[in-house]
Write a structure and sequence with these properties.
Blueprint lengths: L3 E5 L15 H10 L3 E5 L4 H7 L8 E4 L4 E4 L2 E5 L4 H12 L4 E6 L4 E3 L16 E3 L2 H7 L4 E6 L7 H7 L6 E7 L2 E6 L4 H12 L6 E4 L6 H4 L4 E5 L4 H6 L2 E3 L6 H12 L7
Helix pairs in contact: 3-4
Length: about 270
């Protein structure tokens, strides 16, 4: 019996326009009535997940910042930040590179130094953005994620990976976007956050269903027997998936969960 359902957001549950199936909130409520808990797992901050699921946020879990912050039923359960020395070092490196930008996430604010940063394109979140000297921000408050990305193109920029390699072992390097890389506190990942939830709720991987599409979802797949990848997922994730489902723009996560509830039986073996 499934007791826990975990879904990535971008490229998985959400369509390209940032929306999800209008029946998702009622579906989550239906899951709760059957004793199944829904967890949103994303590189997005917790405040954004709260906005996406505000009607049911007190009933679900939220893995934010790729595992750096974990909410359960509206309350923070655990969080960790990036080492300040790592943050300062990255800012200084990026300032010397043309066409590469850095932004940092506080608990409820995106900090940018340059309005040409790709994050500025996300109009729906601009009320949470602030342009400021990032070195000052690091001195003032914890940073939960550092994002380094290229302005143009969708091919993964290997130069960013090479530039950040020296921080491996000091922070988690997470490939969560086709244009760049995120850094999180050492030991953070979506999978480790899921493991914490499973231990807390006494749920086994055999009772867990997960959905994801990108490299930062890999550890989720390693913590669940039933892992689903939309057909648009990257090759590494589709190779790990228990089953491939339809494209994220076709609301395939919603359909898969709804079909499971309607069947009222266990998944058959492949």
């Amino acid at each position: 019996m499934i007791r826990l359902i975990v879904s990535d957001m971008d490229g998985t549950l959400l369509r390209d326009d940032g929306t999800m199936h209008k029946g998702m909130v009622p579906l989550i409520q239906g899951l709760r009535e059957k004793g199944i808990i829904f967890i949103a797992a994303s590189g997005r901050p917790a405040f954004n997940l709260h906005e996406q699921f505000q009607e049911v946020y007190s009933e679900i879990g939220a893995i934010a910042f790729n595992g750096a912050c974990l909410h359960y039923k509206g309350r923070i359960q655990k969080f960790s930040s990036v080492d300040p020395d790592v943050c300062r070092g990255i800012v200084k490196k990026v300032r010397k590179k043309d066409g590469i930008y850095v932004n940092m996430d506080g608990i409820d604010t995106y900090y940018l130094e340059d309005l040409e940063c790709p994050l500025w394109e996300w109009k729906e979140a601009r009320e949470h953005m602030k342009v400021e000297n990032l070195e000052y921000v690091v001195e003032r408050e914890p940073i939960y994620r550092v994002s380094v990305m290229k302005k143009m193109g969708n091919e993964y920029p290997e130069e960013i990976a090479e530039m950040l390699e020296e921080y491996r072992g000091k922070a988690e390097l997470i490939r969560s976007d086709s244009r760049g890389m995120d850094l999180s506190g050492l030991g953070n990942s979506k999978g480790r956050a899921l493991e914490w939830i499973q231990d807390f709720l006494k749920v086994t991987p055999e009772e867990t269903m997960v959905f994801g599409d990108y490299y930062n979802d890999k550890e989720l797949f390693l913590r669940a027997k039933y892992s689903f990848a939309p057909i648009n997922a990257c090759e590494e994730i589709t190779s790990l998936a228990w089953k491939i489902i339809g494209d994220h723009n076709q609301d395939s996560v919603y359909d898969t969960i709804q079909n499971y509830l309607n069947s009222e039986k266990e998944f058959p073996e492949k």
